[in-house]
Amino acid sequence: MSEGQYTRQVTTIASIDAVGFSRLMGIDDEFAVAAFEERRSIIAESCDAAGGRTFGAAGDSIMAEFGTPIDALRAAFDFQQRIVDLNGRVPGDRRMPFRVGINTGNVIVRGASLYGDDVNIAARIQELAPTDGLAISETTWNHVRDKVAASFTDLGERQLKNIALPVRIFVANRGDGERAEAVPRRAADPAAPPAVAVLPFQNEAGAQEFDYVADGVAEDIIQGLCSTRWLPVIARESSFQFRDKALGPRMTGSALGARYLVDGRLARGSGYFDLVITLTDAANERLVWSRGFRRPLDEVSLVNDEIGGQIVSMLEKEVERVEQARTFQVPWESLETWQLVRRARWHMQRRTREDTMLALDCLEEARRKAPNASAVLNELAWWYFWRGWLQAGAGDDLDRVTDFSRKSLLMDSQDARPHAHLGAVAIMRGQPKAAIEHLHEALQINPSFAFAHSAMGSAHLLLGDAATAIPMFRTARRLSPFDIYGFHNLGELAAACCFDRRWDDAIAAAEASLDLSPRYFYARFLKIGALARSDRMEEARREKALFHAYHPDFSLERVAWIPFAEKSATAFLIDNFNLADQDGGAIEFGPA
């Protein structure tokens, strides 16, 4: 079967199973089926509300897919509580509880089906979950432990049926008590201005389809704040992970590395909307500023100008010697186009295959209505870059990214996104010098653009300048500490540390990457070489055995493909890897 027929992606899988279904079938099969269908509807509703989808139902088991681990955990807590409440209204012998296993990892996608060890691991973890309980893998735990008010009980490593390597498992419980691990504090640079994070706004309109409007207003405020040269802004990919308000401002700000938090509530009336915005100092939980806005529904796309200007004004009073910045000068779009673009972004953040195609439908409709709108062109460029990256540049997706980005620049030359998209395309095509020019422009416009910082680091790394690349990867990590694809940035950081002979730092970065994606081949490949260069040969060989268990068909051609300007860079990484060869001989290049 050709490689092109498959897509690989990082996703989170929940395996959901009815406890005691067979027993109930023996007592009253019609009641059992009706009870299961009622509970399955609850599960599907909760999964859909959290951005997931159910699939692969078989017998009394259900599988669900989520774009982010935090969404999966939120959905599981929600439907389990609803099912507990439902079971409480029926006799004890007629209750049907559910248990859940959650795992995050790389899967192979073909049509509506998902394949791979990480899918099977979720099913095996579910078998170890308590009745009405939830068990998660260490990989999922690494993504969610700092972002939910939950406690985690470490069950240790377990050998799972038909899974080659042991998996560390945690039982998760929702509650207000002490959590197993505190949120780590991120050290702030006292010489730098404090960062701000815009949290996802709460939709109090009562209609789920209004979620995208609430997120859209928050996204516009982020985009405007990013135009302020002096103000570091946490990326929405990280700040939007914090929908769970139970943590409180202090812990949320500490986890994100942000001094200030912007939050909001959106409600809808007859012909108008109400928006309440707050600015909080997370360090002391002091409310710095709050204001309510009531506007006609057709002005929802304009309100960010006024809100953003006031937020910047308040922050300027908090920080000495700041420059006076004029921001939020984005081209006006019609309400209909604005809604289509925001709905597309909302679907993309759900990260399911169905939602990504719905996002494309929204963007194509927006393009028909406003073919020259820069916001529409930027979102289309990102959509095709995302698909081109998943397919390793195959097809004409990168050409389409280039076309959309250039058209966007003609409409708005002061938007950082098209510059960054052009830089990322140049990296994938092995043109790092051209990439640096585009990315420099992006960062001049938006110094808080985490994606551009990471891409700039990759471009310098390809040119052999690891010392310049390292702080760029670290900045990207600081600006987006909870990015679902952060494993890639950490892998690049590990490579840069290898080239700079900073072996301990390389090992630490690789391990952080593997915490987020244990099957990311490049991070483990680099870790093996760094361990060997550190004379930690036993550890290196153990890691190498693990590497071949995860990647039995690995070929060094996969590393040789990386477009370093000097081929000696590739040879250096391969030599490091070969130092840990268990039989002492070098590994030859195999077929691609």
UniProtKB/TrEMBL annotation:
TPR repeats lie at residues 416-449, 450-483. Pfam families: Guanylate_cyc (PF00211). It comes from the Bacteria. The keyword NADP does not apply. Keywords: TPR repeat. Residues 12-126 form the Guanylate cyclase domain. InterPro entries: A/G_cyclase, Adenylyl/Guanylyl_Cyclase_3/4, Nucleotide_cyclase, TPR-like_helical_dom_sf, TPR_rpt. SUPFAM superfamilies: Nucleotide cyclase (SSF55073), TPR-like (SSF48452). This is Adenylate/guanylate cyclase domain-containing protein. It comes from Nitratireductor rhodophyticola.
